[in-house]
Specification:
Radius of gyration: 19 Å
Shape: globular
Structural class: mainly alpha
Strand content: under 5%
Helix content: over 70%
Number of helices: 9
Order of helices and strands: HHHHHHHHH
Length: about 230
């Protein structure tokens, strides 16, 4: 028992929790995909989607300004915005003497984008047809690409920033702000009628799991000095 407690130190405990979270994310995504494929989520999806629409014309609830704000928020999860953010961060890391970390970040997020497209093609779920779309949307619906890539990108960058600071308030800030952005982006996709709620849940799950895997790999590579170590 003593040896086990010694092994389960601070770093090992963090590793164990990360592995459990990754396993839980994979399981949850699989469960959602299975339920969606069998049509078991139809009533839930429909009820949530219609709750954000006016009964008469099925337009989004709220004044036009709210709809426009939702479009602005949803754009924060677009490939263009996330691509610019990723590119800018990679340039910053390179200028900061962390070229290998910059390359890893770019490859990880790009691979996540490819995975998102592959998952969409594999499941090929149609977009919601029971309400008019209040924003442009292409390809299939499951999982939500905006939700997945927002979770992947913002949570990865937030965790990297949090790791570079020791103050708990700053760590919390760097984790809570990305989480809030991811939440708002996902809700906006349902509000605008371009995704079912389970698309967004699956996107959050897949993106968060991919982010955890990327951060786990970063930690391992930094310990082996394959990537630039964290600043102390």
């Amino acid at each position: 028992m003593n040896r086990f407690l010694e092994w389960l130190g601070e770093h090992e405990a963090g590793l164990l929790l990360t592995l459990v979270a990754i396993a839980a994310g994979v399981w949850l995504f699989g469960a959602l995909a299975s339920d969606v494929g069998e049509g078991e989520t139809r009533n839930f999806d429909t009820r949530i989607l219609l709750s954000m629409r006016r009964p008469g014309d099925l337009a989004p609830i709220g004044p036009p300004g709210v709809v426009e704000a939702a479009r602005d928020i949803t754009a924060l999860g677009s490939m263009v915005v996330l691509g610019i953010l990723t590119f800018s961060t990679a340039i910053f890391l390179t200028l900061d003497g962390k070229a290998r970390l910059a390359l890893f970040l770019a490859v990880s997020i790009s691979a996540g984008a490819v995975l998102s497209l592959l998952l969409k093609d594999a499941f090929d779920r149609p977009r919601p047809e029971i309400v008019p779309h209040a924003a442009y949307a292409s390809n299939s619906s499951f999982p939500s690409g905006h939700s997945m890539m927002a979770a992947l990108t913002y949570m990865t960058l937030g965790a990297m920033l949090a790791a570079d600071h020791k103050r708990k308030r700053l760590k919390s800030f760097f984790l809570l702000i990305p989480a809030l952005l991811v939440l708002l982006i996902g809700v906006s996709r349902v509000y605008l009628g371009v995704h079912w709620p389970t698309d967004v849940l699956a996107g959050w799950t897949a993106g968060g799991t991919w982010a955890l895997i990327s951060l786990l790999v970063v930690k391992r590579l930094q310990r082996r000095q394959t990537l630039e170590p964290e600043e102390t």
